[in-house]
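Researcher: Quick test of sequence recovery. Tokens follow.
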């Protein structure tokens, strides 16, 4: 399921027609199998947390590499500008991956119940 999520496919059915319709907009359900991405109240906190952690990791690694490579004359001004730009751009780039990855983890930890699968089947391919 993680492999599917990394390729922005539905973690459950593997289809490309998933809830990620456009980069920053989502449908409520996978457009192929009908599984809901928002499986419980507060589900969005998981993808947001993944996004924040990934962004900070990339920024910390980039800053460490720049500092280590340029010691003792660190280009502070340029480094800060690039890192601030990265702090704005990276969350946008990582946005859909956070949702698919979090859903993959959630589906692996809590497989859908028969009621959830019946609800998904009722909405499969509707949009
Ligand atoms: Zn699906």
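Model:
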């Amino acid at each position: 399921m993680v492999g599917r999520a990394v390729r922005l496919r539905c973690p459950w059915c593997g289809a490309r027609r998933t809830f990620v319709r456009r980069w920053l907009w989502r449908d409520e359900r996978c457009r192929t199998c009908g599984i809901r991405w928002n499986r419980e109240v507060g589900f969005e906190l998981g993808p947001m947390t993944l996004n924040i952690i990934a962004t900070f990791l990339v920024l910390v690694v980039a800053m460490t590499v720049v500092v280590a490579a340029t010691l003792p004359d660190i280009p502070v001004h340029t480094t800060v500008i690039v890192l601030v730009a990265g702090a704005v751009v990276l969350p946008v780039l990582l946005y859909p991956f956070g949702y698919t990855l979090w859903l993959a983890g959630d589906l692996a930890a809590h497989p859908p119940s028969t009621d959830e699968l019946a609800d998904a089947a009722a909405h499969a391919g509707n949009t």
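The chain has one domain: 2-123.
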